[in-house]
Amino acid sequence: MILKTLCVGPLETNCYVLGDEKSKEAVVIDPGGDFEKIERTLKELKLRLKYIVLTHGHFDHIGAVAQLRRATNAEVLIHQKDAFMLSSAGRSQPFLLESGAEPCGADRTLQEGDRICFGQFSLEVLHTPGHTPGGISLVGQRMIFVGDCLFAGSIGRTDLPGGSFDQLMDSIKNKLLNRGDDCLIYPGHGPASTIGEERRNNPFLT
Ligand SMILES: [Zn+2]
Ligand SMILES: [Zn+2]
């Protein structure tokens, strides 16, 4: 599988480009900004974008969604509880006013257990609320894309609208940490890690 991490937008969000070498089908997770950089990467890798998947609705993860959708006709997928954040109504939230992003609807909403298929690969949707009500993590083969739920050495903020510390800890402990220790974690910001590393050394979890 092709996996490229692009650092995009003012908050240095990790935008992940996943592709199947054979069919050339691709998924982009969290296109938070820098549309040109994402489009160039897809072109260089000769990938055909099938889905734009959002781990949650915060502005730093959705900034380039509308442009990318227009350029590629890919479907926009987000959990049903965060879908409103993509529309203009959801942008009345204080945190989203900082965004220059165009509003854009979801083509399909996601829930726990859904599978997102591209080529011979798939990602399974885990509902991991706490940072936002509709936060999701995406499980691939020995890897999880966790959005702003969990970071290397830290955990997601819970002081923004819809956040809940108890929900976040429940998501991390019961949905993420029970994966194998060698499972790779790809967070919404900062470096990648592993479940084992975070279970043993993350100060918020020990
Ligand atoms: Zn966030
Ligand atoms: Zn973020």
Structural class: alpha/beta
Q: What is CATH's topology name?
A: Metallo-beta-lactamase, Chain A
Q: Kindly provide the name of the CATH class.
A: Alpha Beta
> Termini, distance in Å?
33 Å
Task: Report low-confidence residues grouped into runs of 5 or more.
Answer: none
Written overview of the protein:
The structure is a single chain. The protein has 206 residues and is an alpha/beta fold. It has one domain (2-201): Metallo-beta-lactamase, Chain A. The protein has helices spanning 35-44, 59-62, 65-72, 165-176, 195-201, and strands at 2-8, 13-19, 25-29, 48-53, 75-79, 108-110, 115-118, 121-127, 136-140, 143-147, 150-151, 154-155, 184-187, 193-194. The chain has a 6-stranded mixed sheet, covered by helices on one side. A 6-stranded mixed sheet has the order 7-8-9-10-13-14. It is globular. It starts with a strand and ends in a 5-residue tail after the last helix. Bound molecules: zinc ion (ZN) (2 copies).
Descriptors for this entry?
single chain; Metallo-beta-lactamase, Chain A; alpha/beta; binds zinc ion; 6-stranded mixed beta sheet; 206 residues; 5 helices
